[in-house]
Specification:
Two copies of one chain form a homodimer.
Chain A (H helix, E strand, L loop, with lengths): L7 H20 L6 H8 L3 H7 L3 H11 L4 H9 L8 H16 L2 H12 L5 H28 L8 H22 L7 H19 L1
Helix pairs in contact in A: 1-2, 1-4, 5-8, 6-10, 8-9, 9-10
Chain A binds a DNA duplex (30 and 30 nucleotides) through helix 1 and helix 3.
Protein name (chains A, B): TetR/AcrR family transcriptional repressor of mexJK operon
InterPro entries (chains A, B): Homeodomain-like_sf, HTH-type_TetR-like_transc_reg, HTH_TetR, Tet_transcr_reg_TetR-rel_C_sf, TetR_C_Proteobacteria
Pfam family, one (chains A, B): TetR_C_7
DNA sequence: CACAAGAACTAGACTGTCCAGTACTGAATG
DNA sequence: CATTCAGTACTGGACAGTCTAGTTCTTGTG
């Protein structure tokens, strides 16, 4: 009847994953029942269990699927123009985009979800941290190394510098978001954090 | 029979609170049953419900009770000697103590517990953040303001500077601890973070 | 192209378990 | 002797995971 981009099975699989993502994000692991997910995916519970052995496996797969979206962030961070005159400008723009990406409600919610269940899923938290966070940090560190080679920055330990960069930018908004429910930061706040963070970073590393 | 420092009721109250603290920290909110707490406190369930209306109230009270221990941290941060020659040394010592205090397993565990349940207890997360975190930050900001008045630092926005200080120090270990189960950082790591963080901070703000 | 076999799917009932909160009894405590 | 407590049984609801019976899609083979 309809256009069939994928097999029925693949469509169901995706529907379940989408529903699980939405439900787990909104109500947490314990707060989401398999019936909820089945209903949201418009699928029978049996089908859910056909595609995913149990709730834990569904959760783990759903979380790890999100690491694919990190690529965009890696690309964002990968090349900073080596232009001495516009270094602050370029870094501030990068910082703004970085902040915008990380403070998206979805991203923050996912972060909280993983932290909340890091006890029950220790290796999951570790994997996500590695494949999500550390990949971006490593890319950023490489970019900083290049800038250091070009004598635009003075850096001993590029990875540490990358951590400092993200710490200066993200500490405030991420912390707030972890403890409060929704997002408390306006665009102006974010701009302030970006400007001030980059200024401090350049004070320390130029 | 025994020495009675407090009424029996007060003793029971404390026993329940201690047991709740231990249990919730170890197994999370959902993972801890009221029977667990009663058993751990060596008290009947009836008594638990005599002292605390329900599980939510017990949890909330237990969390807020921990904010009392913040006083020690506030005192720690309150007075930094205004000695220009030893500024870096003094700040590094402060940073080391700050890091040691915040990366204590109990503190990190509590932090994760609150984050994990910030959805279910929104006002609790907010209160804890205010009375725990922001109090320390405000004290630190005041101390920085004094140092700025003494011309030891160059600071526009003391609160932002305090956030930057803690971000530089805590971003790495706190992040790691949130996603991994236990503590991954050795004392050497912490020392490195303290030294490097203070160096970057002074680069930015001196 | 036709069609049969089998795979995947739906709907919902069902089991076993866990747990918050209540009720009751008899013993200890003050 | 009046409270407070331990011990324990009980209620009601939620939920992971299984099972069954009947339906729809997919695919290989003639």
């Amino acid at each position: 009847m309809e256009a069939n981009d994928q097999s029925r099975s693949a469509r169901k699989h995706r529907a379940i994953m989408d529903a699980a993502t939405q439900a787990f994000m909104a109500k947490g692991y314990a707060g989401t029942s398999m019936d909820d997910i089945a209903k949201l995916a418009a699928v029978s519970k049996q089908t859910v269990y056909k595609h995913f052995a149990d709730k834990e496996k569904l959760f783990a797969e759903m979380v790890m699927a999100t690491t694919e979206r990190v690529d965009a962030m890696v690309a964002l961070v990968a090349d900073i123009p080596a232009d001495a005159d516009r270094l602050e400008e370029n870094l501030t723009r990068l910082a703004g985009q970085f902040l915008a990406a990380v403070t998206r409600p979805q991203v923050l919610q996912l972060r909280r979800l993983i932290i909340a269940n890091a006890d029950a899923f220790p290796e999951l938290g570790a994997s996500w941290y590695e494949q999500g966070f550390e990949r971006v940090l490593a890319t950023l560190a490489a970019a900083f190394q290049r800038l250091a080679d070009e004598k635009l920055l003075r850096i001993d330990d590029p990875l540490l510098a990358a951590h400092h960069f993200s710490g200066l930018l993200l500490w405030i908004p991420v912390n707030q978001a972890m403890f409060h429910g929704g997002p408390q930061h306006t665009q102006e706040d974010l701009d302030r954090y970006a400007t001030a963070g980059v200024k401090a970073f350049l004070g320390a590393y130029r």
